[in-house]
Write a structure and sequence with these properties.
Layout lengths: L1 H8 L6 E3 L11 E4 L1 H9 L3 H7 L1 E3 L1 E5 L5 E6 L1 H4 L5 E5 H11 L5 E3 L3 E4 L4 E4 L4 E3 L31 H4 L5
This protein binds flavin-adenine dinucleotide (FAD).
Length: about 170
């Protein structure tokens, strides 16, 4: 749906299908949105809506399969000025994105049955056809989610691998 929003704003017709029913219980629970995800959501125009639902994540703690702490660090040590990290319920992110696109852009209980090499799609409701571009204008490039702060020569920001430092105790 994030892609649908961006394409619709650029004048490209979209047809989003979802095999599940509208309002079906969400799969999954919470989502951690690292700073580049938060930045990408902001760039597509849903940053304020996401912020309404989300809670800040300031520290990250990694555990092994027995729950023992492997490492813990402040997330701004990694993300720096890329921006804040957030957490929100998966269903709430879906709501934000669904509200951000034209509701008619999503057809529920419709499954993609087949896609051929020439772009012809067949749906479970018997509809389908070849995808035809509605705009021939070149699309402007999206800003890289990590902005100007990241380059191939940027120093590594992640701490050393926890796996490399953890001693096996069982
Ligand atoms: C346990 C777990 C925890 C995760 N935690 C995080 C996290 O904290 N932070 C994070 O950023 N990412 C997390 N991820 C990854 C994240 O969930 C995925 O990257 C993200 O959901 C991908 O989004 P998507 O829209 O591409 O696919 P999906 O969210 O999988 O959506 C695909 C949709 O397409 C529908 N569909 C599938 N096949 C068809 C078909 N043939 N016809 C019609 N509809 C179809 C499905 O029903 C589904 O609704 C996690 C993943 C898992 C499994």
């Amino acid at each position: 749906m994030a892609l649908a929003k961006v394409l619709l704003e650029r004048g490209v017709a979209v047809d989003v299908v979802e095999r599940r029913a509208e309002g079906a219980p969400e799969l999954g629970a919470g989502l951690y949105l690292p700073a580049n995800a938060v930045r990408a959501l902001d760039a597509i125009g849903v940053g304020d809506e996401v912020a309404e639902y989300a809670a800040p994540v300031t520290r990250q703690r990694l555990h092994d399969h027995r729950g023992r702490v492997l490492t813990e660090f402040a997330v701004d040590r990694i993300w720096g000025d890329v921006g804040p990290c957030l957490a929100m319920a998966r269903g709430e992110l879906h709501t934000v994105l669904r509200d951000a696109v034209d509701g008619t852009a999503v057809r529920y209980e419709t499954e993609v049955h087949a896609v051929t090499d020439d772009g012809t799609v067949t749906f479970s409701d018997g509809t389908g056809g070849a995808a035809t571009p509605t705009s021939t204008a070149p699309l402007p490039p999206l800003r890289p989610a990590t902005g100007a702060h990241c380059s191939p020569t940027s120093p590594a920001r992640f701490p050393p691998s926890p796996a490399g430092r953890a001693r096996r105790r069982d």
